[in-house]
């Protein structure tokens, strides 16, 4: 399998997940790069928790998750995304998935989970540094 950077990788070997989280004026942004799987999904909530603790009551309720850099997302990864949606909803916010494509788009559609999120194209200004497409 070749990622968008042209680097060939063995699809049978899990890739680590890199998570960047930052609080912005109107929303919290997460940028996910790598594999969102059973082995990496917990780190997403850890990053959100750390940013939430730092921001305190000023943490925006809305969340934007840039998934353009995901190479793979399994059912645990999907569950993590749904968990983020539930967390945002409890605070009156929404979750936008930016850069959804390939297999992740299909999984969201087939499972019906797409109705839980706002889907939008990747934002080049805040896009993932490197990586491929969930697929």
What's the Cα radius of gyration?
Answer: 14 Å
- Our measurement of the CA-to-CA distance between the termini, rounded to an integer number of angstroms, reads 10 Å
Number of strands: 5
Mean pLDDT: 84
Q: Supply the helix-strand structural class.
A: alpha/beta
Which sequence of SSEs, written as H and E, runs from N to C?
Answer: EEHEHEHE
Strand neighbour order, sheet with most strands: 1-2-3-4-5
Low-confidence stretches: 1-7, 127-135
Residue fraction in strands? 15-25%
Helix content: 25-40%
Output the number of helix runs.
3
Please give the largest β-sheet. 5 strands, mixed
Shape: globular
Protein name: Anti-sigma factor antagonist
InterPro entries: Anti-sigma_ant (IPR003658), STAS_dom (IPR002645), STAS_dom_sf (IPR036513)
Domain STAS: 17-112
Family: Belongs to the anti-sigma-factor antagonist family.
Task: Explain the overall architecture.
The chain is an alpha/beta fold and 135 residues long. The chain has three helices and five strands; from the N terminus they run ββαβαβαβ. The protein has helices at 41-55, 75-90, 102-111, and strands at residues 18-23, 28-36, 63-73, 95-98, 118-120. The protein has a five-stranded mixed sheet with strand order 1-2-3-4-5, with helices on one face. β2, α1 and β3 form a beta-alpha-beta unit. α1 (41-55) runs parallel beside α2. The longest helix has 16 residues, at 75-90. It is globular, with a radius of gyration of 14 Å. It starts with 17 loop residues before the first strand and ends in a 15-residue tail after the last strand. Mean pLDDT is 84; it is low at 1-7 and 127-135. This is Anti-sigma factor antagonist. Belongs to the anti-sigma-factor antagonist family. Pfam families: STAS. Residues 17-112 form the STAS domain. InterPro entries: Anti-sigma_ant, STAS_dom, STAS_dom_sf.
């Amino acid at each position: 399998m070749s990622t968008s950077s042209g680097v060939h990788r063995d699809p049978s070997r899990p890739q680590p997940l890199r998570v960047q989280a930052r609080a912005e004026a109107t929303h919290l942004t997460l940028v996910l790069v790598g594999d969102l799987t059973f082995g990496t999904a917990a780190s997403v909530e850890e990053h959100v928790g750390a940013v939430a603790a730092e921001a305190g009551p000023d943490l925006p309720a809305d969340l934007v998750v840039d998934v353009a850099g995901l190479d793979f997302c399994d059912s645990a990864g999907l569950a993590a995304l749904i968990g983020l949606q539930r967390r945002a909803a409890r605070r009156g916010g929404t979750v936008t998935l930016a850069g959804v494509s390939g297999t992740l788009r299909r999984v969201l559609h087939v499972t019906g989970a797409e109705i839980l999120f706002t889907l939008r194209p990747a934002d080049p200004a805040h896009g993932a540094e490197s990586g491929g497409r969930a697929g």
